[in-house]
Amino acid sequence: MVVISDANAQMPRTLDLDLLRSFVTVAELGGFTRAGTRLGRTQSAVSLQIKRLEEQVGVPLIARGPRHFALTGAGRRLLPHARQMLRMNDAAMAELVEPEVAGLVRLGVPEDFATAHLPEVLAEFTDAHPKVELEVTCDFTLNLEQAFRAGRFDLVLVKREPEVALTGMRVWREPLIWVARDHLSVPADGPLLLIASPEPCVYRHRAIAALEAVGRPWRCSYTSTSLAGTQAAVRAGLGVAVLPREMCPDTLTPVPEGVLPALADTEIALIEAPGASHSARRFAQHIAQALERGA
After folding, report:
1. Which of 35, 47, 109, 289 could form a disulfide with 157 if both were Cys (CB 3.0 to 4.6 A apart)?
2. pLDDT in tens, 279-291
3. Inter-axis angle of helices 17-29 and 32-39, to 10 degrees?
4. Mean pLDDT score of the chain, rounded to an integer?
């Protein structure tokens, strides 16, 4: 069989990574203006890049409107491919341009925050920097602070309270809410059954302080060291708990405002050890940027 090649046959089109990066940023931040701020470009420049990408693929990727922003079906299909291509590009560049990003980096982080927000952040960094060994320890914030002061971590993510002496860069902020199995789990009078982590726990302190400030009696009915255990106890109707809003699954019910005392927002700070290695500083930068995308 003789195969005759057609010199006029259309060559496969190649996607522009710079345009893909703009597309992914727009999709993750939900708009051109915020994406422009992240990318250091004007809103019109980002819009033009998306238009050029749409011309490359031949289909609309984003449905635009005065008060409407949404990915089209083609945009939703392209997004995971675009993320994978950018990860591969960044990993290759890190291997060639940043060969010194290597060695052990020790991170301390609260268990519930690690469970809800960090798996993808860690995976992206290890994909891009395969020579870095990450050692992640989950514990309560106060224990993490003590270990950090003792030099056992290069970086820590901690739930920050005003009285905490350690300073750092805020990388996450989220409302705290009371959660219950249902509205019947919150008695109108009598002691409130509280589900909380053991001492020392910032959420436990917040809950108790808020209840005692308004004179609401309470008793701790269940103590759990994990987010999954706390959620399971609430789901079983053993009491109410304090959780960040994003950690309240659909199986639990947020307690309506005014039923229980209001809670201040939770805040996560990233703290870098003095004299941290280049790899640790690079990891800190990655965490801050990744969490900003998700905030």
Report:
1. 109
2. 998 899 889 888 8
3. 120
4. 85
Provide φ and ψ at 262, rounded to 5°: -65, 155
- pLDDT digits 0-9 by tens, 45-99: 999 999 999 999 999 999 877 667 789 999 999 998 998 888 888 777 776 766 6
| Amino acid code (one letter) for 249 | P
CA-closest candidate to residue 193, choices 214, 170, 223: 223
Contact 179, 254 (CB under 8 A): yes
CA–CA dist 14, 56 (Å, integer): 8
* Cα 200 from Cα 153, distance rounded (Å): 19
What is the per-residue pLDDT across 148-172, written as a single tens digit (0 to 9) for each? 999 999 999 998 765 554 567 888 8
Nearest residue to 120 via CA among 93, 83, 150, 92: 83
Domains defined along the chain, listed by start = 17-86 (1.10.10.10), 103-168+272-294 (3.40.190.10), 176-264 (3.40.190.10)
DSSP, collapsed to helix, strand or coil, labels residue 60 as: coil
Write b or e for each residue in 187-215: b if 16 or more Cβ atoms lie within 10 A of its Cβ, otherwise e: eeeeebbbbbbeeebbbbbbbbebbeeee
